[in-house]
Q: What sequence folds into this?
């Protein structure tokens, strides 16, 4: 009887340990955090590497490289132009995950951040699944 009781206690303790572990951050959250880190460090090439490009773009490496380079240059230009403006880009000092809403092929991850002037704000990062089942930052221009 004591062995049975001891065995039940061990199984119950093991079960509680398994359920308390959790599954960790979602793929969507990890991608959004990586995107925020790229923006924080002004790593526009790294950010663009996280963006969705259509399968037709991805099948031609030269065309894909040109599109990525063009998007990187555009981001750098937009940020540089807006930095000196009153309502322009103020950079990212720190950031944190807030929430996410996901359906079968899209996700919106809300991130909170503090800019370099210590003003808090939020940003919605829109994601989509690519043809390989990987989450990517949604690309309006595709």
A:
């Amino acid at each position: 009887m004591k062995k049975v009781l001891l065995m039940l206690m061990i199984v119950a303790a093991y079960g509680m340990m398994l359920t308390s572990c959790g599954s960790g951050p979602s793929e969507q959250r990890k991608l959004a955090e990586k995107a925020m880190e790229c923006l924080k460090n002004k790593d526009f090439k790294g950010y663009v590497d996280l963006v969705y490009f259509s399968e037709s773009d991805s099948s031609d490496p030269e065309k894909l490289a040109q599109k990525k380079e063009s998007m990187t240059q555009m981001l750098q230009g937009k940020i540089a132009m807006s930095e000196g403006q009153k309502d322009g880009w103020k950079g990212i000092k720190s950031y944190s995950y807030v929430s996410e809403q996901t359906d079968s092929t899209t996700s919106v991850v809300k991130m909170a951040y503090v800019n370099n002037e210590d003003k808090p704000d939020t940003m919605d990062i829109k994601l989509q699944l690519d043809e390989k089942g990987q989450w990517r930052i949604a690309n309006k221009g595709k």
Notes: The helical segments are 2-21, 27-40, 44-48, 55-58, 61-83. The radius of gyration is 21 Å. Residues 56 and 136 are 16 Å apart (CA to CA).
